């Protein structure tokens, strides 16, 4: 789907990780370019919620 900048998704994100491009915090700004590249790379689109691969504490 194409984003129409309506911000409906912003309050739905449980970890507050959705920002308008102009409001991306500086420490995450590099992800904007990475997301642009990955979205055009032919990777499959995530269309359903999946269970986490591991607990966050176990990843460190």
Structure explained in plain terms:
- The protein has one domain.
- Helices cover 17% and strands 0% of the residues.
- It is built from one helix and no strands.
- The longest helix is centred in the middle third of the chain and has 10 residues.
- The relative contact order is 0.08.
The whole-angstrom Rg is 14 Å
Biggest sheet layout: none
Q: What is the SS-derived class?
A: mainly alpha
Instruction: Note the total helix count.
Output: 1
Record field, number of beta strands: 0
Give the N-terminus to C-terminus distance in angstroms. Answer: 34 Å
Order of helix and strand elements from N to C terminus: H
- Portion of residues in beta strands equals under 5%
| General shape | globular
Name the poorly predicted regions: none
Question: What number of structural domains do the residues give?
Answer: 1
Give average pLDDT, whole number: 84
Give the helix proportion (percent range).
10-25%
